[in-house]
Design goal:
The protein is α+β, with helices and mostly antiparallel strands. Helix content is 26%, strand content 47%. The longest helix is centred in the N-terminal third of the chain and has 34 residues.
């Protein structure tokens, strides 16, 4: 009789042990899948900063604002521009927010890109940190002549989303 009791108690625990092992296997499988899923490649994205023609009057400038968020990696500006009118020249700069404020107030600044006074050019510059940047087309040097600019500038970046 004693043997019968041991045997029946084993049968009572067997379903519980089997259920526990099934749960353990399921949890282990889920943890393995969650931990070892291959990473998705970031998507390469582009956004237009400026495309087409616009006028920059004498002694003025035209800024185009760019915001780089934390989700954007390997951000960079790429594009080209040409100027016409009077001496067919324009100055183009890429400035972060702080240096743009300094430049506006004619204080010392550092540009991530600076064309100098040119008729045409290509811009390619990295934007390594999140923040606000400006591509500035300046005609502040011209006393009387407005300039027509044709530009095609884009922001390129990787996004994990």
């Amino acid at each position: 009789m004693h043997q019968h009791t041991v045997s029946s108690s084993r049968r009572q625990y067997q379903p519980a042990i089997a259920a526990g092992l099934a749960v353990l296997a399921l949890v282990s499988s889920s943890c393995y899948r969650a931990r070892y899923q291959p990473a998705q490649a970031p998507k390469q994205m582009a956004a237009t900063v400026v495309e087409g023609s616009f006028t920059v009057n004498a002694r003025t400038y035209t800024p185009f604002k760019i915001v780089v968020s934390r989700e954007m990696t390997h951000a960079r500006i790429e594009g080209s521009f040409t100027a016409s009118g009077a001496n067919n020249d324009i100055e183009v700069m890429l400035l972060d927010n702080t240096h743009f404020l300094n430049w506006q107030n004619r204080h010392t600044f550092t540009a991530a890109y600076e064309s100098g006074r040119v008729t045409a050019g290509h811009i390619r510059a990295s934007l390594p940190l999140p923040g606000t940047y400006y591509v500035v087309f300046s005609n502040r040097f011209s006393l009387l002549s407005r300039k027509t600019v044709v530009a095609d500038v884009s922001l390129h970046f990787n996004s994990a989303m």
